[in-house]
Design goal:
This protein is α+β, with helices and mostly antiparallel strands and about 300 residues long. The chain has 9 helices and 9 strands. The radius of gyration is 40 Å and the shape is rod-shaped.
Length: about 300
């Protein structure tokens, strides 16, 4: 090439200093400080022996172990650059179908939301595993109570591993608390009607009624307290009524309109499990006004919302 073009022009095109070119021609080796041919041959040979898979540090250790020659890693890196020795980089392989969860259709949960993320208000639809999330009271949840039925609920209480949910509306309408007229026998009439609606809800935990659990024991004088539901002991069902203790814990009162909106936003009165003092005829209910109200057990103009328990 130098026979066709001047050296100066070739050096300018290649961005090489002309004096460096003449010096290279004189000593016949690359221009590098302290460059030694024997070291370059060792590095080239060992790089070839390991098929180029060793990086600078590992190549340094390899030469030390094999040849008992101690070279600085910066020196090896410089020689590799001068000699154009490239380390072979391993290419990443994609996961096989059996290992990639996103490709393994047998590991996929049923896709219930079907890409329909539209909702009338926030908190209506969730598309993630929420078992580790603490659910606040009043959170709206849609739950598949059996294989064919999905029901809308509000979170009544987060128990840690389980949730108590209450339906977002009345599921039983215009039914007496107890047609016998005696509170000591418990809310047998309304619970029987509730069971007729919920007995096919196979995806909820069963509930065993008893006076200790669902009576008014331990409440103050305003919501007293001896509800002897003898005939309800060991009665297993899928749903129950909200207790007066749960209602008062959420802020409901007989003197102030303090119930949370989601607990009374129906158009109907709803029964609770709570008996008024030790009355044999008066029971607490939650009207559409959000103020706890007493009603006679035989009043057949009141409905019920179902309270269920599910696993997270």
């Amino acid at each position: 090439m130098k026979s066709e073009y001047p050296i100066l022009r070739i050096c300018n095109v290649l961005s090489v200093n002309r004096r460096s070119y003449y010096k290279w021609c004189k000593i016949e080796k690359p221009i590098a400080n302290n460059f030694k041919q024997e070291i370059s041959e060792i590095i080239s040979e060992e790089h070839k022996n390991v098929k180029g898979i060793y990086g600078t540090i590992r190549l340094k250790k390899h030469i030390e172990n094999k040849l008992k020659m101690f070279l600085n890693h910066k020196l090896i890196r410089r020689y590799k650059h001068i000699l154009n020795l490239e380390t072979v980089k391993r290419t990443k392989k994609g996961l096989s179908v059996s290992r990639a969860k996103e490709k393994n259709l047998t590991n996929k949960a049923q896709y219930l939301i079907e890409c329909n993320f539209n909702s009338e208000k926030p908190g209506q639809k969730f598309s993630s595993d929420v078992s580790y999330i603490k659910c606040s009271d009043g959170t709206a949840i849609s739950y598949k109570v059996n294989d064919t039925t999905t029901q809308d609920f509000y979170v009544l209480k987060d128990n840690g591993n389980t949730l108590d949910l209450i339906t977002n509306d009345i599921v039983v309408k215009d039914t007496a608390w107890n047609i016998s007229g005696n509170t000591n026998e418990g809310p047998m009439t309304i619970l029987t009607a509730l069971e007729s609606v919920t007995n096919t809800w196979n995806n909820v935990n069963s509930i065993t009624y008893n006076g200790t659990t669902f009576g008014n024991n331990g409440c103050n004088s305003s919501f007293a307290c001896t509800m002897n539901i003898y005939t309800m002991n060991q009665r297993t069902a899928k749903a129950r009524l909200i207790t007066v203790q749960e209602a008062t814990a959420l802020g409901c009162s007989a003197t102030e309109h303090s119930c949370p909106n989601w607990l009374f936003n129906t158009k109907n009165y709803q029964w609770t499990m709570g008996v008024l003092d030790d009355s044999t005829v008066q029971v607490w209910s939650i009207p559409p006004t959000g103020l706890l109200h007493m009603n006679t057990v035989t009043n057949n103009g009141i409905g019920a919302r179902a309270v269920i328990n599910i696993n997270k």
